[in-house]
Amino acid sequence: MPNVVKGSKQEKMVVVPYRPRQRILFLLFLFTGVGVAAAAGFSYGYYTTMLTQEVEQADRAGLQDELNVLRLDNSELRRQIAILERSSQMDQRATVEVQSTITGLRQRIAQLEEDIVYYRGVVAEETEHTGLVIGQFDISATGVPGRYRYKLVMRQQDADGDTFLTGHANINLIGTGSNGQVVYPLRELSDDEDELDIRLRFKYFQNIEGELALPEGFEPDRVQIAALSVEPVEKNINQNFSWVVEGE
Description:
By secondary structure, this protein is an alpha+beta fold. It is built from one helix and eight strands, in the order αββββββββ.
């Protein structure tokens, strides 16, 4: 019986059979598993690396395509900017030319207006005593209170016998009524006239005559005759005649 120190803890001993073959198999399996795990880890790492490289290459290709598209867009934008700059320069030149043309036209118009005023003065001097003139205007009593006869003769001075004078005449009576000054067109006083503008068309002369009736309470003061000829020359006449009745 072995010596045992009294009071110390005693370890139990286990008897294991000695099997060297099993131990060698265990070590073989262990080394094999480690090799397989290492190979698997290397394969996984290689696969992961390749996959990552493929993804990066795809991303790089996509970025390169986008970069190419952006370069094309940038080139197009530069081209459009250049076109717009040229258009702006052309517009500026055109604006300057238009303004210069407008200034020249305004100066030309001003000169033409001065010429027109001058030639109108010359024509007015030449036609003052030619063309349309008032040859005669008479008012006579009819014997009926408030009713009178009128006669206006319009002539063409220096008529050549071939040219018709055309235009129109207006005759107004101006006087005093119950409410102050009143103007009556001849057509409102005479049944012989139905137009405000009495038509003129003659070679030598034209008579405008008839009877008129004065409204009650109206006191005539003067007769206003305004006439306009269009052919053969334009001419305006505006003349007043005092209300003078022959035979009264």
